[in-house]
Structures are given as C-alpha cells and as structure tokens.
Amino acid sequence: MNSSQTRSHVPRETIDDIRSRSDIVEVISECGVVLRPAGRDYKGLCPFHDEKTPSFTVSPPKQMFYCFGCQTGGNVFTFVQKYEGKDFWETLEWLANRLNIDLPNPDGRASANRKRVTSLEDLNRFAVEYYHNQLLIDRAGASAMQYLKHRGVQLKTLRSFQLGYAKPGRRDLIKAATDKGFTIQQLIDAGLIKDEDRGPQDRFWNRVLFPIYNERGVPVGFGGRSLSEEHQPKYLNSPATVLYDKSNILYNLDKARQSIYKKQHVLLVEGYMDVLMLAQSGIENVVASSGTSLSENHASLLKRFAPEVIIVYDGDTSGFQAAHRGLHRLLSEGLQVRIALLPEGEDPDSFTREHGVTAFTELTDKAINLIEFQIQAAIQRHDIHRIDVKTQVVKEVVETLLNLKNRVERNEYVKYAARELHVEASVLWQELRDAGFKETPISNQKRRTKTNNQKLTPRAQIERQLIEALIQSPTLISYVKSRFHYESFTEPRFVRIAQLLWEACTGDENVDIQALINECPDEKLSAFISGVILQRIPPPNLLQARVEGCVKKLQHFLSQDLEQRVRSHALAEGADEMETLEALVKLSNQRRALRNRDTVDTRGENPNEGGS
Question: Rounded to whole angstroms, what are the CA distances from 181 to 176, 370, 488?
Fold first, then answer.
C-alpha cells in the first residue's frame, strides 16, 4: 500500500490504537538506543546529536521523548520518523507490522500492487546475496577481488556494503533466480535482465556490483563497474523501475543517516568508491549522487536529515559544473551549502588514500561558501577583469542570491561579491530587483527570524505560560479560544501552536495532543509541545488559575493595542479630536475597570479553596 492510499483509508481510531499499543521505551530500545531507568522515566544518550552526558529522556506514562540538549522531542511516531528516515505513513505501516495489525486495503488493486512491489524487493534481496556470494568464491570472483584490493577496499567494507560480482555468463542470474521461484517477468520488472532478440539476458555481467538501497535500507537497484576497458560503459546502473528512480535515491543514505543527524551536515560526493573509502576511513556522514546531477527530490531528501550540505566533488572542470548545477536546488530547499575544493585531478577516494583521513577532514572543515565558490570557479575558467566575463559572473551570483532564504546571509554575500568582483553593492541589489527579488520589510523579517533562544518580551512570556498551560490541560482550550483569536499572540511560535490548538478544538471533544503532534507540520513545534508535556504538570485548579490570569493580562495588552490603533488612525485620517478623545477615554475606562476587577478578584481569593 502506498502512502497516499494509506492516508485516505486508515481510520483515526486505528492510528490511535497503533500509537497506544506501541510502547515507546520498547521501540526506542529496539532501534538500538540504550535507555536506563531514572525514577519514573528513562534516560540515555541522544541518538540525534553527539553528547557524553545523557540528556535524552523517555516518559513511559506519557509515551513521549525529549532531548534537553538538542530540543528534539515527540511521541513514538515522531521518533521512528526521525530515526528511521520514514514519513508518517511509512512509520504507521512499520509500527502496524511490528504489532501484527493489518491496515485496511482500499481495494484489491492496491493490495495486488503492494504484493508486486514486495516480491520485487524480495527478488532484489536475493540478487544482492547471490552476487555477494559470487564475489566471495575465490575462483569465480578472483578478478573482482583483485580489482577491489587494488582500490584499497578492505574485507570488512566489502561485507558491510554487500559488494558483489556478476560473472561473464549472460544467463547466470536468470537460472539462479528462476530456480528459486522468481519469474522472467519479475526479473525484467526489477531491471536485473533485458529481454533481447536472442532471449532474456542478464543486464550485469563481468562487473563489480554496488547494491543501491533507499533511505529505509531496502535494495532497489545496482551499480556495476566493468572490469575491462573493452566492456563499456565503465559504470552501468539499473534502469528506472517501480523501485528505483535515480532522482529519489542517494547512495549510502541508509547507513549514513544517523551520523548525518549527529553531525548536522552531510558530505555529498559523486561516486560509489568515494563513499566506500571515506566510510572505511571512519567518515560516515557521506552520500553519493552516483554521477547524476542533484534533483529537487534529492534536496528535499537531504533536508530531512541535516541543515547543511558540504559538496565534495572532483577537482576538475566536470566537478565544478556538477557542483554548480546542484547549488540552486539545495538553496531553494533552505539548506546551507559549502564547497570543498579538491586539488585538480583528485577525487575523495584518491585524496584520502594519498593524504589520509585527517587531511580530508581539514579540507572539508575549510569548505568555502557558495558565492566564494562561484567567483573562484569563474576566476579559474576566465579572466575575471574582462567586462563580458564579469557580467556573466554577476548574473550567476545574482541567480544564486535569489535562491537564498536568509536575509542576513544574502546581505553579507552581496557585500562579499561586490568586494571580490570590484562592483558596487548597489549594482548587485539592482540586478536582484531586476531579476524579480522583492525585499521583505524589516519588521516582518525580524519577527520571523527571532530564535527560540532570544529573550522573550514580557507579553511573550505570558503567551508562553498560556500556551504551556493549554498543552498540559487541553480541556481549557475552548475557554481561551472563545476569548482570543490565535493571531492575537505576538510570538510567531505561539501563533502557530495556538492555531493548531484552535483548529483541533471543535465541538465538545477534547483535543488529543498526541494526535496533534502526529499532524504537526513543523518538527520544532512538535518538539516544543513534547517538551511541555514532559514538564511536571501542576494540579488542575492551579492550571485553570494560571490560564485565567494569563487571559486577563493578555486582554490588557489587547486593549492597549486597540488604543494605539485608534490614536494612529486619528492622526493619519485627521479625525475629529473630540470623537477620538471620547473613544480613547472609553477604552481607557474599560481597561481600568478590567484591572480593578482583577485586583478585587485577587484580594478576594482564598488559597485554601478549590481543592488540593
């Protein structure tokens, strides 16, 4: 069943049942995270960032996790999504299979399609094992083993990546697979054989094979390297199939994703051997585009795992061009991009073998920003002082600047490019405007870019207390919703969370915070909600008192906002002074009455009333 079919046909009750029956401690432990009891909770080293002191907390009663180090949190669905690199619906299927729960099939056709896909996955697993065994048989795989040994590939690396060998025979796999019950049509559908005029023939022969897995570790295809110059092309990949689409696959992402999570950046190289040799040297956060230019899907896939990409391409003209083509796709996804420039004639594989892993790490640590890369590439290719060359470089730089999401970053790059190209910054800004760039007003930009770590205003602190209380006691949401629109909040995070809470609060039903986390479109917001849930929750009467107090204080702020708008409107429109004064006096009296009532309420409160 594919994700869209699952989304349409799985009842909410089934999702809730799978979540409630999936013990979060068991699931996280099964994924390899060591958890130890700490009172009512469990603690361990966070799998999403490097740390020596455990800050990763799991709460069995609340079925939630939260890391106080990297502020990552959520429920069992959130953890599996982030740890396994799955989307929500793949996670649902994964947890359902773990519990032996059958998800509903929308129709017979979908069930048949899923069965077909599963059979092709099984066929690919068989092919991986078959080719791997051929490599390990001395007589059959001697030439392939000699090639890999010459390239410096160790036996443990060979086994880890399940490298294989396709013998010179043209029907060897066909016979082995059909003997196991697979059909010729399945072999064709998996891209393992070709149906030629002389009959079915193995696609791969006399080649070292690199199994290609998707990010979930399912084998979807192969890359084959020929063992003789006469056998062309040098590299041959599986064709597009129902399982394999090169625009959706990054080699080694299945093995590298945990290291990428922890290091918060990914090294992007070109080829299989680059990945193997770097991984063998202990550099695990590396993936390959396998010789293809980066697609939008590649960029979107990388963004799921890290905020920064360091491109490490060969130090030749083709390497420059390959890196350049992928830049804008990465930038448009909001990723930070740096380029590690290798010496001419070197690739990551050869550089690491010749100079060692320390030298390679130093090179990637000194990776340059993308504008610097473009300018250096232009200087290397042309005389930058020529007017036609400078004009073309400015055009390329402006195209890159248009794709940047961060205003501060764009401003700094404009200044850098102007300095290096010896042009006025105003010229670059005009080129940007001519190309369609519209500058965001400063006030809106500041509001969006405020980070969670900045000190909150007094008003935002009250908003935070209110939001936290509503998350801890969802039954109070309807009370606050009847008094405030979610846009009355000023802190952007709280506006978005309030919107989620308001929209989830319909009728008399209580808001399910766990379900809200599942549906939350922003990972940072779901982590914030998770962290609030794991806090010590005050008694219900204290939560209600806190909510009421926050509501009253925010109403004061709203009254002040309204008075300010009346004044501003009067000044702008030249309104009658007496009418304006009367309106302001009325609003001021209302605010004063509200404040006095709050004072009386506070003085009249009996701290012993209301239960414990």
Answer: 9, 52, 65
Helix (H) or strand (E) holding 246: none
Nearest CA to 248 among 225, 211, 216? 216
**Which pLDDT score, from 0 to 100, does residue 600 have?**
40
Q: What's the token pair of residue 488?
A: 């009355």
- Respond yes or no on whether the N-terminal peptide bond of residue 307 is cis (omega within 30° of 0): no
Q: How far apart are CA 471 and CA 305, in angstroms?
A: 28
Q: Which residue has the tokens 């414990």?
A: 612
Amino acid identity, position 309? V
pLDDT-based confidence at 582, cuts 50/70/90? low
Q: Which residues of 228-244 are buried (b: 16+ CB within 10 A; e: fewer)?
A: eeeeeeeebbbeebebb
Q: What is the dihedral of CA 345, 348, 349, 352, to 10 degrees?
A: 100
Cβ-based neighbours of 374, under 8 Å, separated by 6 or more: 324, 393, 396, 397, 400
Alpha-carbon separation of residue 25 from 31, 33, 51, 55 (angstroms): 10, 10, 20, 15
Measure the CA angle with vertex 546, ends 540 and 550; round to 5°.
145
* d(C-alpha 502, C-alpha 478), whole Å: 8
Instruction: Please list the residues that pair with 308 across neighbouring strands.
Output: 265, 336
Report how far Cα 534 is from the mean position of its chain's Cα atoms. 24
Q: Which amino acid is at 85?
A: G
Question: Which residue is it, tokens 């022969």?
Answer: 205
From the list 116, 96, 112, 92, the residue with the least C-alpha distance to 8 is 92
Q: Which of 97-101, 117-121, 291-295, 435-439 has the highest mean pLDDT?
A: 117-121
pLDDT above 50: residue 365: yes
CA 425 to chain centroid, in Å, comes to: 34
Rounded to whole angstroms, how far apart are CA atoms 209 and 483?
65
